[in-house]
Amino acid sequence: MSKEQEYLPLIAEDADVDTLPLTGHGPSARGRRKLTRWLIPALVASLIIETVTLVVLAAILGRKSTHPSCTVPGDQKVLYSPALGAVENQVQVYQLGFPGDMSPYQIPSSPKLDEMWSDLYNYGISRISKEEASLLPNKTSPIPGDPGYYIAELDVFHNLHCLNKVRMALDPDYYPDWRISTSNNHIATQKNATDHISHCVDWIRQSIMCHADTSVIVWQWAASLNETIVKGNVAHTCRKFDKITDWAKERLLVNAYDPFVHMEDDIVVPILHQEMP
Ligand SMILES: *[C@@H]1O[C@H](CO)[C@@H](O)[C@H](O)[C@H]1NC(C)=O
Ligand SMILES: *[C@@H]1O[C@H](CO)[C@@H](O)[C@H](O)[C@H]1NC(C)=O
Ligand SMILES: *[C@@H]1O[C@H](CO)[C@@H](O)[C@H](O)[C@H]1NC(C)=O
After folding, report:
1. Which residue minimizes the CA distance to atom 8 of ligand 2?
2. What is the number of the ligand closest to the CA of 222?
3. How many angstroms is it from 67 CA to the middle of ligand 1?
4. Is the CB of residue 195 below 6 angstroms from any atom belonging to ligand 2?
5. CA-nearest residue, atom 9 of ligand 2
6. Cβ of 276 less than 6 Å from ligand 1
7. Is residue 16's pLDDT more than 90?
8. For a pLDDT cut of 90, what percent of the chain falls above it?
9. Ligand closest to CA 223
């Protein structure tokens, strides 16, 4: 019913017992007078408490909504990608990569390791619909012999390809075609991978800076070492890689793509998009 009745029990705790009715459904005339005496200050106090609570709550919620890990400011542009629908975050703890917490990718160079790396990106070339292609911020090409479909690759797969080549360049005795050649170590019969590896290192640098991971690496006391040590194997906010690979595998370009066939098409990329940084 009214606010008064809601607050009665509160008053009862503070008020003299004899000012409250012991029986009946409402306060007696005398009780009502006394109640009013208590009621008004109590209501005012309640209102103040409520107001303060609301202000504090608003402050907490307000702070939360601008917390950098929770939201991205709404006015920032995210360029269209046909895979945006497959983006889903999850919390993931990285493997440290030192003994005791090694990842499966740290085994020595071998056909098995090559296959594991290849499994991370060898489905990276996709066929997307013309409608999707027309929404891209830049032009891509129709697939010869596959009317209505266009070729596309998500950069995550190109990144992984590049990192794999860098990995191979680090073990040139096992991967002679990926040796970085200087006058000191050049082997005449081998390819010189310097330019490709240089491209890859710089591409990965740009990608890391572009995605600027703000997960926090911490320092913790390690009693066994008597030392505060840096701990990188903490939780990160990650995109579910499986969902992105599912997207790519569903759209895998199976047939060989002939880059020497030029296909005319009528998709016009708006000037506005072309000018985007
Ligand atoms: C489109 O491609 C051109 C040439 O590669 C490039 O200069 C431009 O920045 C690209 N625009 C976008 C929005 O990707
Ligand atoms: C390998 O390629 C790099 C980059 O093009 C070049 O600077 C270097 O001299 C090459 N190495 C040899 C031995 O030719
Ligand atoms: C850690 O340092 C303390 C004080 O220097 C020393 O007494 C203790 O033996 C050390 N413990 C280990 C495990 O090194």
Report:
1. 182
2. 3
3. 33
4. yes
5. 182
6. yes
7. no
8. 61
9. 3
* 8-state DSSP, 141: -
User: What does the pLDDT read at residue 189?
Assistant: 84
Q: What is the pLDDT of residue 11?
A: 33
pLDDT tens-digit series, residues 72-127: 555 678 899 999 999 999 999 999 999 999 999 999 999 999 999 999 999 999 99
User: How far apart are the C-alpha atoms of 271 and 43, rounded to whole Å?
Assistant: 63
Q: pLDDT at position 8, please? A: 33
Q: Cα(228) to centroid of ligand 3, in Å? A: 13
Residue 27's pLDDT band (cuts 50, 70, 90): very low
Give yes or no for residue 190 CB within 6 A of ligand 2.
Answer: no
**Minimal-distance CA residue to ligand 1 atom 7:** 274
Contacts of 135-142 with CB under 8 Å at 24 or more apart are: 135/80, 135/82, 136/80, 136/81, 136/82, 136/269, 137/79, 137/80, 137/269, 137/273, 137/274, 137/276, 138/269, 138/273, 138/274, 139/267, 139/269, 141/263, 141/265, 142/263, 142/265
